[in-house]
Specification:
The protein is an alpha+beta fold. It has one domain (50-256). It is built from six helices and 13 strands.
Length: 287
């Protein structure tokens, strides 16, 4: 059914109502602006401190201290990844995809940020380089690095197809977090949350408003690089859909690893920078 299917009469002023101009919900001109020049200068002199190779149809965790950098790279073939981030010292503070979407838009790129959940609502990671920034928005309304998809998961698969698939991104992230922190799967799963879909090309259909995916434009050598604004624990899943050109929970799609590298700036390279404080709302909620 399309959104234009109607079961009720069209009012006489329908065209007038539809013609009302939209208003941006969250004008972002007053958002704190990251100092990209400072970050990039610090990155130029940074030294590599470690790397994690995320296997296909699996996930792995990594840690990044505040003021350091991490890069997610395509290394063998076109592959998308699902990224979770937490405050390394407090898992209750985690990436808030919905608010990041409201503040920046449906897809993130250079200079935009991943924001944390309430009551903290502060920048946790800033994108400083995106080799796919040339893609922009295509004729279908698709773009890359979305914050609209939730992550492929076994519950929706079971709901729609009666399946019991265990290597979707939700399960991959759950296993990785459990292993990294020594938790049971039951303890780890509630901490897994909506993701940044790294390298994934997505949008909404214009007739039905449905979330769509298409073959990712990522190629080996492409990367997305971040500055850690707070101490981070990350988990990245190499999606079982590969480049997501056909399906996203599959044992037959061509899948490839993703590389996560971490870098430490030289001493004094971030002179004047400090990790952002938690949100300043007083939390009285009118009482």
């Amino acid at each position: 059914m399309t959104r234009n299917t109607s079961h009720h009469p069209v009012p006489a002023d329908a065209a007038e109502r539809r013609a009302i101009k939209p208003v941006i919900c969250y004008p972002n001109e007053t958002l704190p602006v990251p100092d990209l020049a400072l970050y990039r200068e610090a990155r130029n002199g940074a030294e590599k401190t470690g790397e994690v190779l995320v296997p296909p149809r699996d996930a792995a965790c990594f840690e990044v201290p505040a003021g350091h950098f991490f890069r997610i790279s395509s290394v063998e073939g076109s592959q998308v990844g699902d990224l979770n981030l937490w405050n390394r010292e407090d898992l209750s503070e985690r990436f808030y995809s919905g608010k990041s979407r409201a503040l920046h838009g449906t897809h993130l790129t250079t200079g935009e940020r991943m924001w944390t959940s309430f009551p903290y609502l502060r920048p946790m990671a800033t994108i400083i380089e995106d080799t796919l920034d040339w893609y922009g928005m295509d004729d279908y309304g698709g773009s890359v690095h979305d914050v609209i998809g939730t992550r492929c998961d076994p519950y929706t698969g079971n709901l729609l197809a009666g399946s019991q698939y265990h290597h979707c991104c939700h399960s991959n992230l759950t296993r990785a977090l459990a292993d990294h922190l020594g938790l049971s799967l039951e303890e780890a799963e509630p901490h897994v949350h909506d993701v940044l879909n790294v390298f994934m090309c997505t949008g909404f259909t214009r007739d039905t408003g449905q979330y769509f995916m298409k073959a990712s434009p990522v190629r080996p050598g492409d990367y997305l690089e971040f500055f850690a604004e707070i101490d981070l624990l990350g988990a990245l899943s190499a999606c079982p859909g590969g480049d997501c050109s056909a399906e996203h929970s599959s044992d037959t799609a061509a899948c490839f690893p993703l590389l996560v590298e971490t870098f430490a700036p030289a001493r004094g390279a971030l002179e004047g920078w400090s990790s952002p404080a938690a949100n300043g709302y007083d939390r009285s909620h009118g009482r």
